[in-house]
Amino acid sequence: MRANKMLRKGVAVMLCIVISSFIIAIVPSTKIGAAPVDDSILVCENNHLGLYVNPNTAVISVLDKHSNKLWNSNPETGDSDDARLNSQIVVSFFDELRNIVTVNSYEGSVSPKTFKIKTIVKNNETTGFRVIYNFVNENHRFSIPIIVTLKSKYLEVTIDYKHIKEYGTSKVCQIDLMPLMGAGSPTDSGYLFLPDGSGGIVDFANITENNTDYDEPVYGYDGGVDVTLSQLPHREGIKMPVFGIKCGSDAIFGIITEQEALARIKASSAMNSFGYSTVYPSFSYRESDLTGIVDKGSVTRSVRLVDNTVSSENPKVCYYFLSGDEADYSGMARLYQSYLVKKFELTKNASKIFPYIEAFGLTYKKTNFFGLSFKSSIAANKFSDLLKIESNLKDLGINNTVYSLIGFSKNGYHGNSEAGYSISKKLGGQKGLDELIKKVGEKRIFYSVDLVRNYANAGKLFKGSDYISGLNNLTVVRQSGKLSTGAWNDSTKWLFRKSSSIISLNNKLTEKMQEATKIGVLYENLGSDIYSDFSDKINSDRQQLVNTYQSCVFRSQKQRQVAVDGGNIYALFNSTMLCEIPDSSSNQNIISYSVPFYTMVLHGYVTMCSKPINEEYSVEQLIRFCGENGVCPTFRITSCDNNKLKNSELSFLYNSKYEMWEDTIKKSMKCLYEVQNGLENVSILKHQYVGALSIMYYENGTVIVSNTGNETEKYEDMSVGPYDIVRID
Description:
Helix 8 links the parallel strand 40 (607-612) and strand 41 (632-637). The chain is built from 9 helices and 47 strands. Strands 9, 10, 11, 12, 13, 15, 16, 18, 19, 25 and 39 form an 11-stranded antiparallel sheet that branches. An 8-stranded parallel barrel has the order 26-29-30-34-37-38-40-41. By secondary structure, the chain is α+β, with helices and mostly antiparallel strands. The longest helix is centred in the last third of the chain and has 19 residues, at 658-676. The chain is 16% helix and 34% strand. It is globular, with a radius of gyration of 27 Å.
């Protein structure tokens, strides 16, 4: 939710440190494990953790009583005067010229002693403390409170957005929270865990001076900002709002539990700015964007626009402390799985592994006839084609194929979906669908709909009021370059629908489908496209859009099975199936290697489908990934000659004809059935690499070993060939 924020001027700021009624117990001189920083005061404790704070520096310390490991918000640097190493928050703000300026809490508030610390007492029991950082320099005048609370088994840290105060012309835009919590020094052994794609590891031992810092938005790039870019960066992205650090035999794991859609995950290696390896969250408070204007001299220049509204809901991060066998990315995955099971009330409900076919239907392309231009229709698949494919697959011993019908509405692929539910007569109509249902079954068919993007109106002069606007008050238009050439000319364009428009369209969809059919629904882009809307009348942020998406899924799941395309974790809410889940990290150069964190968290609780195998560089590697992780392989399938699809909206389907993939489907499913038999509802306990071997341990004792390399490897007394998968019961 956003709320208007009035800037108040001339307000006096009290410059003091309040420690009254704070001291509960002074840390004794005798060390218990690692001693808290000098002058730290015990605020509160329980059977698992002890919370300390240094009243002179605001350094936060947490003692894990199980391992005697002390975790500090800032490294013990002796007499170091590096303000960055002594800061608990870093604030980015706009000055009066709309330049983005950064200030840290140490030099802006702690060093000049303009911060306050107050204990929090609930039911006569101290539960934590509140720190108010007052920044009073003439160039930056604002105050930012954070709330630190000790829970039974974790530390909860909240940025109190509701009580941020801005004085003068400074406008806060971004806040980095505890950027050095648990940071690893150059001499430590361990790694950073990044939630990048399937999961990425930054190994302290492999860090080089060429490593670039990591800075990615949770749930992907915001489609409502960076409007001067035609195409947003495309990476694996962050699907889960988590992060972690392993140091020696201990680890810390963070979960962003509130306002995660406004967060970014940042990481830096020890060879870069801090001199420490660290990963931490950063939160947006106020958005901005660049727009181009033409001055009197006909010169185009960029101008920064700053949002007049701010986020008013508080971001919250929970820090968990792990030790021993739990202190690795496998332990982090198990912890996050437990968190999600409780949050979404999950039960073991995954399907036996199956081939997932994305069947494309109707498309159009421009055709010239004696100088006249008109649109001709092309059927990539008709229902009669899918009936033949189903019969063929059953002859091959594959009896549980699942189909999504993409572009089977009367308006075809990328056609206007305002009508909700419809079936094209050119593909066989409702009668053709009924025949497919009779042969396949309702539970193995999904009708695909895109509530998020509108392609039909993107090229129109008057686009209507159902679509989001940028800070420049113009309707946001996005486009993608052509897959084959990267060219922008005639490439696909689209608009993003407003939250209210998505809800209205979903209501129409569910009403029509309730009357017509019981097949499932696949929501395209619902699990990947997250954006802000800066329209004058209804200004909404990314977190509100997450809530909108979840309400759409909740309504549909009352009637039928629901699949969501994209893989962002909010899509788990009431979904039967998640599609296009990540199989690797983005391999940014700070990342040492990828890990299957995503699938470790979700295996057994929801059916997962891979990216389209016929669009991947290495088919063998993706099949190996599916077998190891219990992920259903996805195939994009057409029945017509691919040459017919040139210059149409389906021109990207250049190797999708069923006959090309029949043998691959047959061989891969034979392997996957054998490897994953009976494991669909079994959780994964642990994963590790031994050389080129990737080893997955299931909770029932089954071990799956796969070879990621191109040479034969040994596992115990067995030989595992390149890309082979071996199951050991």
